[in-house]
Amino acid sequence: MTKTSPGTRSESLDALRGLAILLMVLSGNIHGEHPLPAWMYHAQVGPPNFIFNPNLPGITWVDLVFPFFLFAMGMAFPFAMTKKLDAGVSRWRIALQILERGLLLTGFAIYLQHIKPFAFATQPTAVDWLIGLLGFALLFPILLRLPAAWKPIWRLLLRGGGLVGAAALMLFIRFPDGTGFSVYRSDIIIIVLANMSVFGALLWLVTRDGILPRLGVLGVLLAFRLTHGVDGSWNQWIWNFTPAPWMYSFYYLQYLFIVIPGTIAGDLVYRWTRSTDDPAVRPADGWRSVTVLGVTVLTVGVNLAGLFTRSLVATAIADGILCALALWLTTEAGTSLARLHRALVQWGSYWLLLGICFEVFEGGIKKDHPTLSYYFVTAGLAGFAFTGFSVLVDRFRKTRSVRLLVENGQNPMIAYIAGSNLVLPILSLTSIQVLLGVLSSSPWLGFLRGVFFTALVAIATSVFTRNRLFWRT
C-alpha cells in the first residue's frame, strides 16, 4: 500500500463528506404521490400526513446525513490548519481567516435561500428557472478558488463584480408574500455549519496539542445543555443571549457534540498521514480488514433498525457485541494503518455506547428536537462509517469504487446547491422534468426518480471537480 503523503487530503474523508451531501440531496427528492415507508423520511416527520411530531422517538438514515457532514467538518480542521501552522502562519491570522470563512458561509446561507426558484415562486416559470441559473453562476466569481498567479487587482475585480451582481439579484427578487430581501431568510443547515466552522475551528486551534481540553469543553457544554431551562439562572441568560439572532444562537453550539469527536478522529488520521514507520500491509491480515469493514456497515444498519423500531435492549446488546468484535479485530495492529483503525474503533465505540446510555433520557433518541443520545450515537456511527471508508480506500486501495463520492466531497458547496439551481432548472427548461413526473405514480418509482436526480447532481459536481473548479469551503 502507498501511504498518503503528508499534507494531502484524505480521500476517505472526502468519501464520507460526499456520501453525506448526496444522501442529503436524495432525502429531499424522494417525494411522490404516494408515501414510502416511514423509515425513508425523518423519524419525526413521517407519513401519511408528514406532520412534525417532536414526541416520536427514533432515527432513520435521513437523520444521519447532517451529523455525518458535521463529523467530516470536524475531521477536516486538522488538515486545513496544521499545514498553515507548519508554514509559519500565526494563530491570529488563522483565527481571522476562520471568522472570514464563517461570514462567507453565513452570506452563502442567506443568498441561497433568496435564489432557490421554489423559494421565491410557488410555480416557477421559465424566467424563474433562468434567475435560479443566474444565481448559481454568480457564485463562481465569489467562491471560485483562483489561480495563485492572478494579480490582486484581477481577483478584486472578479470578486467585487460577483458580489455586486449577487446583491443586486437578492434585492430584485420578490417572494410570494410580497416581501423582499431579509437576513432572516436563510438556509438553516448552512447557518449551523457556519457556526460550527467558526466555533469548532477556533476550539481546535486553541486545543491543537491536547484532546483533554476539548473533552473539557464538552463537559461545560453538557452542563449548559442540562441547566439552561432553570428560570432566572445565568446559564439561561447565556443560552438565550444573541447579538445577531439571524446568524448566531447558543443553541447551535450543541452540534459541537458531533464536531469535537470529529476533530479527535481528524487528529488521528492526520497523524497517520505524517507517520514514518513502515506502512506496508500484511496480506495475512486481509480477513481482519474485510471483517472490520463488514462490522462498520452492520453497526450503522443495526442502530438504524433497532432505534427506529424501538428494540432498545436488543440494540444495546448488539452494539456491545459489535463494538467488542471490532475492538478484537483491531487488537493486533502491526502497521500504522491498523493502529489508526484501532484508535478510530475505540473512539467510535465510546461515542456510540455513550449515546446508547443516554437513549432513555429526553423521551428517546430524536433528531428534532435533538437529544443528547442523538448527538453521541450519530458521532459514533460517523466514526464507524469513516473507518469503513478507510478500510476500503486506504487498506484495499479501492478508490475508484467511491470516486464519485470523493469528487462530490471535494466540492460540497456546489453539490449542495447544484440540485435546486442547476439540475432542476435545466430539467424544467428542457421539459425533461415533465417526463420524469410519470415516476411519481408509485412510491418506489418516486424513489427511483430521486435516485436519478441525485445521480445528475453527483455527475454535475464531478464535472466541476475534474475541471478544477472548486468553491472555497
Descriptive notes:
The chain is mostly helical. It has one domain. Helices cover 66% and strands 0% of the residues. The longest helix is centred in the N-terminal third of the chain and has 25 residues. The protein starts with 10 loop residues before the first helix and ends in a 7-residue tail after the last helix. The model has no long low-confidence stretch (mean pLDDT 92).
What is this structure, in a nutshell?
By secondary structure, this protein is an all-alpha fold.
Which characteristics define this entry?
globular, 473 residues, mainly alpha
Low-confidence stretches: none
Count of helix runs: 18
Number of strands: 0
Helix-strand category: mainly alpha
Number of domains: 1
Distance between the termini: 30 Å
C-alpha Rg, in Å?
A: 22 Å
What is the molecular shape?
globular
Provide the helix percentage. 55-70%
The largest pleated sheet is described as: none
Order of helices and strands: HHHHHHHHHHHHHHHHHH
Task: List the topology elements.
Blueprint: H1 11-27, H2 65-86, H3 91-115, H4 117-120, H5 126-143, H6 152-172, H7 188-206, H8 212-227, H9 234-240, H10 256-274, H11 286-309, H12 312-329, H13 336-357, H14 372-395, H15 403-409, H16 412-429, H17 432-436, H18 443-466
